Amino acid sequence: MRFHCRIIVKKNNIVFTDIDFPAVGQVWLAQDRFKHNFTVIHGHGGIIGITQYEHEISDQTLLTCVPHVSHYNGFQQDLKQIAEIIHQKGSLLFVDAYQSAGHIPINVKDMDIDILAAGTRKYMLGIPGTAFLYIKRELAEQFKPQMTGWFVKDRDSAFELFDSRFAAGAKRFETGTPSFAGLYAADAALKILLEAGTDRIGSYLRKLAGFSLQYAAEKELQIAGPQTVEGRTSLISVYAEDAAGIEAKLRRKNIITSARKDIIRIAPHFYSTKDEMKYAIDEISALLSN
Asked: Buried-most residue among 181, 219, 220, 263 (CB within 10 A)?
């Protein structure tokens, strides 16, 4: 579906969700142009039903921001289904894939995603300082960058002060000199991921998630998010009153987790094993029972 600038500029509503990573919503809240034109879709137990998009998106919605996967509880959204709904309303779809890229297969064309951003620090096995942006080519040609650098120009090596021509496609949204250390790390990481194959990684982690959920239930732990592998990733979030304290104790046992509000988050990847997940869950159970 093509979107023409003449239509887009008339829209003034931005939609995001309360399961977005906080920084995503904060970006929009900082935009004075849209400060009276936000719609926030609220999840139920950290989960958003597909029908909520049908009800909350209007013909005045310019952009709908959704996370592919919730950073809090591992809830995974059906992007293809969401795209179909919001495109029927005339909205663009922005996807935050930071919590999914690298361990879940993503096909931006099949899912009909308009804009997608991801970083290398998490499941893409890189380090901070490198991010990726995808924009449909026909959309990129319509947008004018609001922040520029010497890489956004049509000829970035020409060093022409008054040359205002932007490069074609998503390249126009690059800025200045990137973090080369981060790029070298990202290149090595991507080679590993491509060799392993995201389809195989996704299949393996789905089985690992099933094991982890079952074992956590046997240990009588309370798991946030979907209770089965349907609609979730292998990220396992265990409710804990003193999440930060438990995270610190686990770290002393060489178990690396993340405390997020009232949960302890375990984020395995293709190199993680059932025995490692069992060990982590056992230790969390022991700490919670003390």
From this structure: 263
